[in-house]
Amino acid sequence: MWSIMRKVNNINICMNTADYTKIKDSAYLSYSQFKPIRCPQLGSKVVFNDKGFWHIIYRAKDKKRDESSQILRFRLLKKVKELLSITTTIQEYESVTRELTVKDHGKKVVKLVTLQFFGYIAIIDNWKFKAIIRKDGNGQPYFWSVIPNWITNKKRDQRYQNYVGNLEED
Questions:
Q1: Are strands 92-104 and 58-60 parallel, antiparallel or unpaired?
Q2: DSSP string, 41-90
Q3: What is the pLDDT of residue 140?
Q4: Distance from the CA of 35 to the CA of which of 1, 45, 46, 69 falls in 20 to 30 A?
């Protein structure tokens, strides 16, 4: 059994493998009970399937995320549900075409599929995060990822003043 010590969100987290496994199992149990949520911006329901939970644990095939990063993402899952149920504005959008193995009439075949990614950014209960929804071809949108955003880029977030003057008088 090993332990790790990380500083996450200015909080020291010390855990061993048993703690991590317990946290992950608890998060999965909760996640597996999520019902589809109607997203006003998409105008359709978003499902929470195993692909989304897998992506919280892995960046890509055989590239596991750091355990402390996973735990932060587990903590944000309930906030993602809240965000998706109320959002009417999309902040990011990306569309790519890739070859994917899909089932076609019961057979696995490789097809060109358009993947759409929708990003929603929010601050809920003092947690700034981004929720990403993925839609493969004509399929149903599903939860893909949650990205904690606890570091603020001062240059990016600096407010620029476009208007100089007295709004009351002008």
A1: unpaired
A2: TTTEEEB--HHHHHHHHEEETTEEPPHHHHHHHHHHHHHHHHHHHH----
A3: 95
A4: 69
